[in-house]
Every structure is written in C-alpha cells, then in structure tokens.
Design goal:
Two copies of one chain form a homodimer. The first copy, chain A, has one domain: Up-down Bundle (Four Helix Bundle (Hemerythrin (Met), subunit A)), CATH 1.20.120. In chain A, 57% of the residues lie in helices and 5% in strands. Chain A is built from eight helices and two strands, in the order αααααααββα. A two-stranded antiparallel sheet of chain A has the order 1-2. The longest helix of chain A has 24 residues. Chain A is elongated. The interface between A and B is large, with 50 and 50 residues.
Chain lengths: 176, 176
C-alpha cells in the first residue's frame, strides 16, 4: 500500500482514544506490569508516546520543511520516559498525550502536504537521508506498534490462568 | 497475576469500542488487506469475534454451570467467518459484535461467579478437563490477541513506506 496523508492522519487521530479506551479505569496492576527486566508497562508506553509528540514527529517534519539549511534531526531518546520516574497518574498522561496529539495533527494539517512535499528530506542521525513520507509512515506504524505492545503486555498477565489454551494463544509467546 | 472476574469483565466490555475506534471510517483497503495466504484481514477478525460470541464463550460457560451432566463442549470453528463470505459492511459487523458482547456480559454477570464456581469444569474436545476460570481467562487473552493482530495487519500496510525505520519497528517483522 502506498502512503496516503489523509488516511495516515485518520489513524494518528484515533490513537489517543484507542489507548485511553484500552487502559482507562483498569487497576494499577494492569497498568504497571511489564514483560520483565528492561521491558515497558502500558504506563511506560504512554510516557514514551508523549515524548515522541514533544521531540520526534512534528519537530522533525518542521526540520525537513523549514528554512534552515541544516536538516539534521536531533537524536530521539527512546527511553526518556524511564528516566523521569513520574508521579503522574495514567489519567494525566493520557490527557497530555491526547492534547499533544491534537495540537500536532493541527500542525501537520497546516503544512498542506502534497506529493512533492512528501519527497523532501532530512538527515537521520543513523540512517542519513530520509524523506518526510518515510517519517510520517513511521509515525503511523509506531502508533500501531505500541497499541500492539500494550495488548501483548496485558495478555501476558493471564499467561498461567489460561491453562492448556496457551497452545492457541500466540500472543502469549510473542517476544518483547 | 491471578484471574479476577471484575477486572476481566472490565476488559471484555472495552473490546468492541476499542476495535470500533481502531477501524471505523477507514477506507476499504485498510479493512480488507491481510498478511498473505491463509491470514485474516481486520474485517475477518471481527467476523471471527462475532462467531465466538455466538458459539464459544458464554455457551461453554453455560455447559460448565448448567444442570446437564454431559459437560462436553461443542468444538469451536475458528474459521467459520471465512466460509460465509459476507456481504455485510464492517459497520454492520461492529454493531453486531457490540450488541452480542453486551448481551454476553449481562449473561456472565447474571451467573454471579465466585471462587468456587470458577473451579467447575467442562470437557474441551482436545484438552479434556478445563475450568471455568481458564475459559474466562482465555476469553480475555483472545480479545487482546485479536486487537494485537488487527494493529499488526494494519501496520504492515506501510512496511515499504517506512524505509530504513523498519529496523526499529518490530511489529513489521512479527509473524501471523
């Protein structure tokens, strides 16, 4: 499938409500349990998504499309949310994510992206030249990947309780 | 984590709105694309979930808790939705799933399940004796597994479009 900006915005717009729907009102154990050492809980994932809204997707799109000739991206810290052990509730994090995402979608729409704009380039610290289209497609897949992760982390809470049915539940064997 | 009936009902109640939220208003291509031969599209998954509401979870719970001495489950056809090539829209399927799930949660609540009830048994066609607790834990994990699958199938639509970022997007390499 080819990248489509309208469809991508549709999916990006859905993410905060999908995640909020999945997690809201669940007890702390479902929110804070992870898959073991160096893995993330649903709570950590929401913190990571917030950090992406602040430092990754739109800031990088603006580097690509801005006047400045230096097109180098600032490296994205994929573990930032783990360093700031936060005292905020999940509810507060979900509200912040939704607010930031709404603002960022508005900024994205204001860029009036067309086929030509999508081919403009920035410099990724590891990959070198990348296009705006690749950045935006990655944003969509990154969202879906973290919804995927949240459902997997949650499912594993009942790994033992399903008994013999584990045989037909591939999600319980999926790795981090 | 130990099985908890209240928390399980919370999660089971969320599923129709989570899936509807993920899929509604998306173009046909996002709904009907699958991962290749013998894999399911998001549309197929919703059909499968409907079939489970009709023939699997609550019917089996009622066999376990009912008066009848024969505790053998009817085998569940995991591919039923593929046989009835349906002309129904996704919107109709989502509405049917939500309606059936609401009814089934009401039936589940009416069973007033306690610790003792959870240990009662039925006979699975392949596994032999299974408990009501295992059946209900499986229902929860099965839901989460299919939300997980839908996000993975969707993400793979942009497998090529993400360019070099594929390296950091494990969801694009996850198997069916």
């Amino acid at each position: 499938m080819e990248f489509n900006i309208t469809e991508s915005i549709q999916i990006l717009t859905k993410t905060p409500s999908v995640i909020s729907n999945l997690l809201k009102d669940l007890p702390e154990t479902w929110i804070k349990t992870n898959e073991g050492v160096d893995t993330w809980s649903p709570y950590d994932v929401v913190g990571h998504l917030i950090h992406g809204e602040k430092t990754d997707w739109i800031p990088r799109a603006l580097i690509i499309l801005g006047e400045n000739e230096d097109k180098a991206f600032v490296p994205f810290d994929r573990f930032a949310q783990l360093k700031n052990s936060s005292s905020r509730t999940l509810k507060q994090l979900l509200a912040e994510f939704e607010e930031l995402r709404t603002e960022n979608i508005q900024k994205l729409q204001a860029l009036s992206i067309d086929e030509q704009t999508l081919e403009r380039k920035g410099i990724h610290p590891e990959f070198g030249e990348v296009t705006l289209k690749q950045l935006l497609a990655t944003w969509v897949v990154h969202d879906l990947g973290h919804i995927n992760q949240i459902t997997r982390v949650m499912a594993k809470n009942y790994k033992i309780e399903v008994g013999p049915w584990t045989k037909y539940l591939a999600i319980l064997r999926d790795k981090k």
